[in-house]
């Protein structure tokens, strides 16, 4: 079962499981896992979504997940800074998992994932939002960061550099500006190999609920045969990993000590006119009595551990604030 909504659209879609095509695929952060959803895309109403029976069955081994605290995260941030210094990097994106026990919230009520998905979709109209259940796993997520959007008719490829995070009322500092520039420079260096007419926008604010990011848009005419290569070169961008990517992915693994799974991977969606690749952020996996929320942020030598913790707390509220218990 999969339901999703495209950015700036109020229509919901599902896949009909028919054999042959797979128009939606989830690719993990390390690109090793690909979850294909079979069938054509069909519109689905809110009423039909509410009738879906999506309830987590499995209990994941809770004890394996050490509880992250501001102190333990500060220690990881200092390890990330050592790694940045030693390897002369611009940034490294560190993340954490937040455990949310439903029973702690309200023991009388039950989580409704269908209602939560609809509320989440309403709260983030410009985001790609999804909810799926496959092979006993349930994930929900959504964000407006696009790794790629390819127009099949015009061969125009669009992408964006999104990084830097602050609460809405705060002003940008050099830390966020440098952090986002590292992503912009990286995307630029790849796209210019594939297109001679690359257009780059000015940098603007991207508002996402209670926080904002810096965003630069790219547009380029490409050869359709280059599409897969462009995506594999772009992913993971320094918005979710770092540069050079293999070294940074190794550093992240040794500091974070968990498998990111689908978090910070991407979701490929093919429609009649476009092929989209959405960055899988602001997401969570759901179990019988708790959810694991994933959130991270770019670390530079200028990072303040307390602010980085707050950033992950604010990011995890995208999911947390939209959970509906009935
Ligand atoms: C890593 C995440 O977000 C990414 C990292 C950002 C940052 O470092 O400021 C901002 C937006 C996203 O590109 C996340 O939401 O977990």
TrEMBL record:
- Pfam short name (any one): Chorismate_bind
Every copy of the Chorismate-utilising enzyme C-terminal domain together lies at: 71-315
Signal peptide interval:
none
Instruction: Please identify the protein, giving its name as recorded.
Output: Chorismate-utilising enzyme C-terminal domain-containing protein
Q: Which Gene3D superfamilies match?
A: Anthranilate synthase
């Amino acid at each position: 079962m999969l339901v999703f909504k495209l950015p700036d659209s109020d229509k919901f879609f599902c896949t009909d499981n028919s054999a042959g095509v797979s128009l939606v695929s989830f690719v993990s952060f390390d690109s090793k896992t690909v979850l294909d959803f079979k069938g054509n895309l069909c519109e689905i109403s809110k009423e039909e979504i509410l009738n879906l029976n999506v309830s987590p069955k499995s209990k994941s081994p809770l004890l394996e997940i050490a509880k992250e605290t501001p102190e333990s995260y500060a220690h990881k941030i200092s390890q990330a800074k050592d790694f940045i210094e030693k390897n002369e990097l611009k940034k490294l994106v560190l993340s954490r998992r937040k455990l949310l026990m439903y029973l702690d919230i309200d023991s009388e009520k039950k989580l409704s994932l269908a209602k939560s998905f609809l509320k989440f979709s309403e709260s983030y109209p410009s985001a790609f939002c999804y909810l799926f259940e496959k092979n006993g796993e349930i994930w929900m997520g959504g964000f407006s960061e696009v790794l790629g959007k390819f127009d099949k008719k015009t061969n125009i490829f669009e992408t964006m550099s999104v990084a830097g995070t602050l609460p809405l009322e705060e002003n940008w500092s050099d830390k966020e500006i440098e952090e986002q520039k590292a992503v912009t420079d990286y995307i630029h260096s790849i796209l210019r190999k594939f297109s001679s007419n690359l257009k780059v926008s000015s940098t603007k604010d991207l508002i996402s609920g209670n926080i904002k990011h810096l965003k630069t848009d790219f547009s380029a005419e490409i050869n359709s045969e280059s599409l897969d290569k462009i995506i594999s070169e772009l992913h993971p961008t320094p918005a979710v990993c770092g540069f050079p990517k293999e070294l940074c992915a190794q550093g992240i693994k040794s500091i974070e000590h968990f498998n990111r799974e689908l978090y910070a991977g991407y979701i490929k969606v093919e429609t009649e006119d476009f092929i989209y690749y959405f960055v899988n952020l602001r997401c969570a996996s759901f179990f019988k009595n708790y959810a694991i929320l994933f959130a991270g942020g770019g670390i530079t030598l200028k990072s303040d551990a307390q602010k980085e913790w707050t950033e992950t707390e604010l990011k995890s509220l995208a999911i947390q604030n939209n959970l509906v218990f009935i």
